[in-house]
# Entry
Amino acid sequence: MAEIEFKARAKINLTLDVLARLRDGYHLVEMVMQQIDLADRVRISTGSRDGPVRVVSDNPHVPDGRANIAFRAAQLIRERCGTDRAVTIFIQKSIPTAAGLGGGSTDAAAVILGLNCLFGLNMDLAEMMRLGSGLGADVPFCIMGGTALARGRGEILTPLYSAAILDILLVKPRFSVSTAWAYQNLDISSITNRPDNAGMIAALETGDKERIASGMVNVLEGVTASRYKEILEIKSRMMERGALGVVMSGSGPTVVGLFGDGQRAKEAAKIFMESYKKVIVTKTVPTKEGE
# Structure
């Protein structure tokens, strides 16, 4: 038996813009995505004989079988290399599920990276990202990591340099939001406040936290917050507690607060912990200049 383990990091959207609805039901997007230090632990092991793909987790809300994107990632890799070798995936969850933080996508990304090593496939990053795009729009970014501008359906990625390590507070309400529902209920013609992605990229390059904070805009927020007013309440409370800026990540419902330093984020977190179970202080993952 061979085994490998990965730290599968979550993502946040610093910006999210939707440009058009396509005939196939998907949408053209343009968004700045950022990897954060919050991570699941994904351990992948392969047997020497043929057998099933199994997904095991310490979180009862993580599905098994085809309902799990990590399972589908393993099946995809097995089909690609023509093997039925047994694969077991153990997921130790730290990323809240159905939260807009890419928890499932990053687990699938870890499986692709892991089986590429364990099966000796020698796929390069671009090939793994192409495979991942067939599983979900966020999977290619989770394979690449760092900071990126995502376009197309989310699969066209341009790596970005960020001079800032950002102190982040995450608060997830008790409810969950369907990504499909959020996009289906978005009226693109009614969008009035779109993110300035060029401005966000410039702010990241210089590490200007104030400008990064003021540029955090997500056009899906209006859809989700119109149904769940609690999102706006969390945003308001975060600003009162000293956040430089706040935004909903992905289709929600997690609210992301950017703070000037880690201590301020921790102090705000203590207040939210009185009302919410999923309150997490974390940081963005640093990028190296030139990457």
Observations:
- The radius of gyration is 19 Å.
- Residues 167-283 form a domain with the Alpha-Beta Plaits fold (CATH 3.30.70.890).
- The chain has a mean pLDDT of 94.
